Predict the structure.
Amino acid sequence: MHRALRLTEVRVENYRTRSFVFEDGLACQPGQFVMAWLPGVGEKPFSIAASNPLTLMVVAVGPVSEAFHQLQVGQRVWVRGPLGQGFRLKGRRALLAGGGYGVAPLLFLAQQARQQGMDVDVCIGARTAADVLLTEAFERLGVGVHVTTEDGSLGQTGLVTAATGKLIETLRPDALYACGPVRMLEALEKQARQAGVDCQLSWEAHMRCGMGLCGSCEMPASEGRLPGWLACLDGPVWRSDES
Amino acid sequence: MADLTCELLGHRLKNPVVLASGILGTSATLLRRAVDAGAGAVTAKSCGPTPRAGHPNPVTVDWGHGVLNAIGLSNPGAAEEVHLLAEARHLLDEVGAVLIASVFAGTPDEFAEVAAIVATARPHILEVNISCPNVRDEFGTPFAASGESAALVTQAVRKAVDLPIAVKLAPNVPDIGRIAAAVVEAGADAITAINTMPGMIIDAEAARPVLSNRVGGISGPALKPIALRCVAEVRRAVKVPIIGTGGVNNGRDAAEMLLAGATAVGVGTAVWYGGVSALGRIAAELEGWMDREGYATLDAMRGLALR
Ligand SMILES: Cc1cc2nc3c(=O)[nH]c(=O)nc-3n(C[C@H](O)[C@H](O)[C@H](O)COP(=O)(O)OP(=O)(O)OC[C@H]3O[C@@H](n4cnc5c(N)ncnc54)[C@H](O)[C@@H]3O)c2cc1C
Ligand SMILES: Cc1cc2nc3c(=O)[nH]c(=O)nc-3n(C[C@H](O)[C@H](O)[C@H](O)COP(=O)(O)O)c2cc1C
Ligand code: FES
C-alpha cells in the first residue's frame, strides 16, 4: 500500500535535477528504492537518497519525473517500499562511482559508511560541468570527491573509469560501489574484475510491479548475474560476492 | 515420508506445485528459475495474437490482505511466444519439469489461431485463459462468464490442437460448476480454478483508484476462501483434473486446496510474500504436513473435505 508523504523541502541540485525531502523517515538500506506514485500521472522507481527524512533525487527526463518537478512544499507523493536489495558495506575503505541520478543512492551509502568510520571516496562522472551533482553534499560528509567530465569543463577529462582505475590502485578499496548508466556499470564491472576488487552495482531496468511478479525487470544473464535475475527482487544492487 | 508426486494429464510432476500464469512466466530463464526453486510444473504468462504492452503503472498494489493487479496481459504475441516456449521446453526438459502454455484472445476463432501457433512449441499442456478480468475495455465480458461462451472457446481450441487443454475459469459467476461442466462437455481435459476476482482499491487521500486501469484482479490471501469454494464446486460438477489456484501461501493452504478436490496446486502471489523460493517451501511444508497428519500420498487426501 502507498503512504502519502508531504514534502517539506524541494532543493534544486542542477538545471534538471531536484531533491525532494519528505516529512517522515523510512527504515531502509542504501541502494533500495521506492515506487513513487503521482496520482493521475504515473508510478516509477526512485532510489533512496536519504532515509531520515526520506529524500529522493529526480532528474527531469519524461512525464513522471517532470511532474515531480512541478511539486511544491506541502504537496504529497505516494510511495510504496522500501523495495529490493541494497548495498552491503564491507571492509574499511569504500570507493563509490556514479553518474546521473546514480549519485543519489551513493550519497545515502556514503553517509552510512562515514557513520561506521569508513574511508570513502566517490568518483562522479558527467558529460559536462552543469551535469555534476552533489559534490558539496559528499564533501560535507568528509568524502574524497573526484569529478570527471567528458568535455573537460570540470575535474579530470574523460569517463569515470579514468578516475576509478587510478583510485583502485592507490586506495586498494575493499569494494567498489556504483550506480549509473548501463555502459558505465559494465565498464566498472570489468575494471573491478580485472583488479580483483569486489564490486556492487545498482542496475536500472524497466519496472512495473516492483514486487517480483510480472517479470518485466529481468536482466540478461552476464558473467556475474545468474539467468532470471530480477532487478526489483534480487537487485537493483548486484554484488560480485553474492553468487 | 509422504509421496508428493502428482499425475497431471499424462505427466508426472515431482510435486503438485504449479507456477500460476502471469507470475514470472515471461521468459524461459524465469520459468526455469521457478522449477529450480521447487515448482513441479510451470505456466507461462498468457499470450495473445499480437504484442501488448499492458497497462501503465501503477499495475499492482498490496493492500494488506492480498494483491490487486491489472498488468493488462502484456505479452510478446503468439509468434514470439513460440520461441520463448521452445526455449523453455529445452531448459525444462533438462530437469524433467512440465511446461504449461497459456493463451488468450478476443474471439473463439482467434483463440484457435493463437492455440495452434503456440502448440508448435510443444508445451506439455495448453491453458486457455478465458477469465482475465483486466482487459474488459478492449475484450468485453470474459468468456468465462457463461457456459455457452466458455464452451465455444473450448470447442474452437479443442479442434485446433492435439495437446491436453486446461480451461481457466473465473470466480465471479453465479454457478462455476455449470461452467466447468460446459467446458468439459466441449472437450476440456482439465480445469484451472481460479483466475483473480475483480476488485478495486481506492487510495483515500488521493481520492482515486490506485491502479491506472481503476479495477484489477484480487489474488493472494483474500482470494483463498473464494478459490476453495470454487474448486469444491468444480470437483462436485466434473471428474477431470483441477489445478486449484488462489491464495496458496504455505503448505497448509496447499493441503486445503487438495482436500477441496484439486489435483495440483497453482501458486502465484506467494512469490511476492516469500520470493521465488516460496514455490519449493510450499511443497516441502506440504510434505511435512502430510507426514504429521498421516497421509502417504496426495490421492489419500484429495477431495476429503467434500465428504
Ligand atoms: C531501481 C531504479 C532506481 C531509479 N532511481 C532514480 C532516481 O533516484 N532518480 C531519477 O531521476 N530516476 C530514477 N530512476 C529512473 C526513473 O524510474 C524513471 O525511469 C525516470 O524518472 C523517467 O521516467 P519518466 O516517466 O519521467 O520518463 P520516461 O518516459 O520513462 O523516460 C523518458 C526518456 O528518458 C530516458 N531516461 C530515463 N531515465 C533517464 C535518466 N536518468 N537520464 C536520462 N534519460 C533518462 C528514458 O529512456 C526515456 O527515453 C530509477 C529507475 C530504477 C529502475
Ligand atoms: C501479477 C499477476 C499477473 C497475472 N497474469 C495472469 C495471466 O496472464 N494469465 C492468467 O491466466 N492468470 C494471470 N494471473 C492470475 C494468476 O494466475 C492466479 O490465477 C491468481 O493470481 C490467483 O492465484 P494466487 O493467489 O496464488 O496469486 C495473474 C496474477 C497476478 C498476481
Ligand atoms: S518489476 Fe515486476 S518483476 Fe520486477
